[in-house]
């Protein structure tokens, strides 16, 4: 391939920051542009599974996260009368090499930013990507909203679910609102009033009011994330969602509604809520895209921009990290193979990544089916999911298969 001299990344979210670190490890220069004025703390923790933790370890971030995250192996699902219904493996040291981890999103962002700063990479804040100006065999030029423009060998859109970079390639592929929202909050774990041996993190299923989730956060589990998912008919724009979120009483009522139909721990959990710790999460997904690459192959999208995934199996950011890591390895492989046609290799990368994303979407569907109202209250499902394909991925083999015939 023509030597990629520089990669420009749009978006300093989890995908963009992790990508910069992965590219740096492969000695590929990059620059990051972020629309916000500074890193944003939207609150809340995310769950990292072994497939992503393996990547973070290779990038040197895992040992920095370890003192910050809450480790666990299983997610527990209980009926509305608090009987164990189902479990879902999220990690396991012996089986997958890593326990699952819940870590504050902002802590993870801070770790990635600190590591980037140590190698002199600082995102350029206040730079909003506008549109691609031109693209040829060797470079791409794009414009920012402030009227400035820039060029690079490759432009990577890591700009999230409402990606503008994606809309340059797929103007009709708008995010689809799933008509579900989650309202979340955090409380002291003691407020839950459960014994130390109560199964956590837990999702309490309820036919009438939706699922209620309680998941420990911080290393010592001293804080509890709580949340409820429910149907919400109307799709809103950003200011509309902000108005819903700012109507804290609506959010509190949402969390408290129907509490008498759940086990008593739910009533205790929602009895005292700190207004500042409430968050709203409308669930969107992206229709399956025909391509994550522009026609000339100089613009690529990844992470939520390419495939926002509903939260069922907790794989959104975990799949984004898979994109990022395999992309950086493929780019390094391309630098070593001057005769390879970059766009063909990147299309193979996309195909193989899409297969994994499809696998997660199928897994989501199986999990949802298993927890349909007709299944609730029945005996606990005897067979678990075999998740080795998901958590135990061999990244070397994955990249070799892409580069093999390059
Ligand atoms: C409440 C909540 C909880 C979640 N929990 C989990 C979980 O437990 N496990 C999990 O795997 N996933 C979880 N997810 C999903 C996960 O957060 C996403 O998959 C992940 O954040 C995707 O990262 P990203 O970097 O691709 O996109 P984003 O995090 O959306 O980052 C995109 C970045 O691009 C910037 N940007 C956007 N437009 C432009 C532009 N035009 N120019 C420049 N910059 C731009 C944005 O400001 C942002 O910084 C959760 C999501 C939410 C909302």
TrEMBL record:
Annotated InterPro entries: FAD-bd (IPR002938), FAD-dep_Monooxygenase_BioMet (IPR050493), FAD/NAD-bd_sf (IPR036188)
User: In the record, which residues are listed under signal peptide?
Assistant: 1-20
Q: Which GO terms describe its molecular function?
A: FAD binding; monooxygenase activity
Identify the residues that the record assigns to the FAD-binding domain, covering every copy: 7-333
SUPFAM superfamilies in the record: FAD/NAD(P)-binding domain
Pfam families from the xrefs? Answer: FAD_binding_3
What keywords is this UniProt entry annotated with? FAD, Flavoprotein, Monooxygenase, Oxidoreductase, Signal
Domain of life the protein comes from? Eukaryota
Q: What family does this chain come from, according to its entry? A: Belongs to the paxM FAD-dependent monooxygenase family.
The UniProt entry, under PANTHER family, shows: FAD-BINDING DOMAIN-CONTAINING PROTEIN, MONOOXYGENASE
Report what the protein is called: FAD-binding domain-containing protein
The organism is Emericellopsis cladophorae
Its ancestry begins with:
Eukaryota, Fungi, Dikarya, Ascomycota, Pezizomycotina
């Amino acid at each position: 391939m023509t030597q990629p001299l520089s990669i420009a990344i749009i978006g300093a979210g989890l995908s963009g920051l992790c990508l910069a670190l992965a590219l740096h490890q492969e000695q590929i220069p990059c620059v990051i542009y972020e629309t916000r004025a500074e890193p944003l703390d939207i609150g809340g923790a995310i769950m990292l599974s072994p497939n992503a933790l393996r990547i973070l370890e290779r990038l040197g971030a895992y040992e920095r996260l370890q003192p910050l995250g809450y480790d666990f192996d299983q997610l527990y699902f209980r009926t509305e009368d608090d009987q164990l219904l189902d479990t879902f493996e999220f990690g396991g040291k012996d089986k997958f090499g890593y326990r699952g981890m819940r870590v504050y999103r902002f802590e993870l962002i801070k770790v990635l930013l600190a590591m980037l700063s140590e190698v002199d990479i600082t995102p350029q804040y206040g730079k909003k990507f506008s549109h691609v100006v031109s693209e040829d065999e060797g470079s791409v030029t794009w414009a920012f909203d402030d009227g400035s423009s820039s060029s690079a060998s490759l432009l990577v859109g890591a700009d999230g679910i409402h990606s503008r970079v994606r809309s340059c390639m797929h103007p009709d592929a708008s995010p689809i609102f799933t008509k579900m929202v989650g309202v979340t909050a955090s409380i002291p774990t003691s407020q839950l009033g459960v014994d130390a041996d109560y199964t956590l993190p837990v999702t309490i299923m309820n036919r009438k009011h939706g699922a209620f989730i309680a998941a420990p956060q911080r290393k010592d589990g001293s804080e509890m994330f709580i949340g409820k998912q429910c149907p919400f008919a109307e799709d809103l724009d950003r200011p509309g969602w902000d108005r819903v979120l700012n109507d804290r009483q609506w959010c509190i009522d949402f969390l408290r509604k129907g509490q008498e139909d759940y086990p008593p721990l739910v009533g205790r959990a929602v009895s005292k809520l700190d207004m500042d710790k409430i968050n709203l999460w409308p669930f969107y997904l992206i229709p399956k895209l025909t391509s994550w690459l522009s026609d000339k192959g100089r613009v690529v999208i990844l992470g939520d921009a390419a495939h926002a995934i509903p939260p069922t199996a907790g794989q959104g950011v975990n799949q984004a990290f898979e994109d990022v890591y395999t992309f950086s390895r493929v780019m390094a492989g391309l630098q070593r193979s001057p005769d390879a046609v970059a766009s063909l290799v990147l299309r193979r990368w996309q195909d193989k990544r899409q297969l994994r994303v499809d696998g997660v979407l199928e897994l989501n569907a199986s999990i949802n089916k298993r927890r349909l109202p007709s299944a609730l209250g029945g005996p606990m499902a005897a067979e678990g999911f075999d998740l080795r394909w998901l958590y135990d991925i061999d990244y070397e083999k994955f990249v070799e298969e892409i580069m093999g015939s390059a």
